[in-house]
Specification:
Blueprint lengths: L3 E8 L3 E3 L7 H9 L3 H8 L1 E7 H6 L16 E4 L7 E3 L2 E6 L3 H12 L3 E5 L1 H9 L5 E7 L7 E2 L11 E8 L4 E7 L2
Parallel strand pairs: 1-7, 1-8, 3-4, 3-7, 4-6
Antiparallel strand pairs: 2-9, 5-6, 8-11, 10-11
C-alpha cells in the first residue's frame, strides 16, 4: 500500500485560511503563479483523497473547483451522516461514516499501491492523533494573514517528531516534505 500524507498550503505565518473564513480561494491564485516538481510528483503518485464534510461544503466543490484539478481518483468525504455519493464534474464523492480511521483505511484500499492525500485541518489533525499519517507535504506561499485557521492547532496527543526529507523553493513557493517519525 501507498503512504498517507497531509497535503496543504499555508501562509508564511502558518495559516491555511484567512481570518473567519474557511475559504481557500487564495491558494488557487498562488498555484497559478508558480509550481514545483514536488507538486507534480504528488499528483503522479496519488491514488485517493480524504477530506472532511465541512471542507467539502465550505470550499464549494463545483465542476470548476475540484481537488487536484479534477484528477479522476476516488474521493472520500468523512461525515457523521450517511448520504448517497455525489458526482461533481468527472468526480464522484463518497460520503463515509465511521470516523477518520475507517475512512482512511477505505481510501488506502481504493488507492492500492498509490498514496492517499488528506485535505483539511480537522481531518489532518485527527489522522495525526490516530497515528495514521506517514508524511506531510506543505507548500508555503509568501503571504501573511496575521490570524486565521491553522493547519495544526491544539493536538490532543504528545509531540510528533518529523524528519524533513525534501525541500524545494521557487520564486513564489517553498514546498517541504516531512516523514512522521515513531
Amino acid at each position: 500500500m501507498g503512504k498517507v500524507f497531509i497535503h496543504l498550503t499555508m501562509s508564511l505565518d502558518g495559516f491555511i485560511a484567512k481570518p473567519n473564513e474557511d475559504d481557500w480561494d487564495w491558494i488557487f491564485k498562488h498555484e497559478a503563479d508558480d509550481s514545483d516538481d514536488m507538486e507534480n510528483r504528488v499528483m503522479q503518485d496519488l491514488g485517493a483523497v480524504v477530506l472532511g464534510n465541512k471542507d467539502f461544503k465550505n470550499n464549494k466543490v463545483t465542476a470548476d473547483a475540484l481537488p487536484y484539478g479534477g484528477l479522476q481518483i476516488p474521493q472520500f468525504v468523512v461525515t457523521h451522516n450517511a448520504r448517497k455519493s455525489l458526482t461533481v464534474g468527472p468526480l464522484t464523492f463518497n460520503f463515509v461514516t465511521g470516523g477518520v480511521g475507517k475512512v482512511i483505511q477505505t481510501a488506502k484500499e481504493a488507492a492500492g499501491a498509490k498514496n492517499v492525500a488528506i485535505l483539511g485541518h480537522s481531518i489532518a489533525q485527527q489522522g495525526l492523533e490516530l497515528g495514521l499519517v506517514d508524511e506531510l507535504v506543505v507548500h508555503v506561499y509568501p503571504v501573511i494573514f496575521g490570524n486565521g485557521l491553522r493547519l495544526i492547532d491544539q493536538l490532543g496527543c504528545k509531540p510528533i517528531d518529523l524528519e524533513r526529507i525534501e525541500i524545494i523553493s521557487t520564486t513564489q513557493i517553498t514546498s517541504m516534505r516531512f516523514r512522521v517519525l515513531g
